Amino acid sequence: MFIDPQNDVLSETGTSWAEVGASVTENGTIENMERIFRAAKQEGYEVFISPHYFYPTDNGWLFNGPLEAEELQTRTFARSGPLDLTGFADSGADWLDRFKPYIDDGVTIVASPHKVFGPQTNDLVLQMRKRGIGKVILGGMLANMCVESHLREFLEQGFQVAVVKDATAGPRHPDWGDGYQAAIINYRFLAHWVPSTEEVTGRMGR
Question: Is 80 exceeded by the pLDDT of residue 37?
Answer without folding.
Answer: yes
